[in-house]
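lol so apparently i was supposed to do this last week
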Amino acid sequence: MIGKLSHVAIAVPDLDAAAATYRDTLGATVGAPQDEPDHGVTVVFIELPNTKIELLHPLGEDSPINGFLAKNPSGGIHHMCFEVDDIIAARDHLLARGARVLGDGNPKTGAHGKPVLFLHPRDFNGTLIELEEV
Ligand code: CO
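anyway here it is w/ cobalt (II) ion bound
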């Protein structure tokens, strides 16, 4: 059911510093910061030949990643995103197998303007998983 790895997301305490590390130290192609008020984050995408890295920084006081950064002050891997062809079919397949979908169970619009869902980390070895319809 899952397809390509869309991205690995890393929560970072300083977005400019993290973007500079990927651009200058690691020599990667780094995009411009984008605010995503619906998700409470500002993101920077790093383009790699086979996937992307999504740097996540809190936007607003009730950002869902404030708690993560409080526990991981120097940042850390926050989630992985897999591509799926049909997000509703994927959701129904997962629900039928006992996996938990976060929020109200309906897709939201993600960073690339496509529908996304998040799955409960306890059902996936402690890893928060995002699905993105492509
Ligand atoms: Co993501």
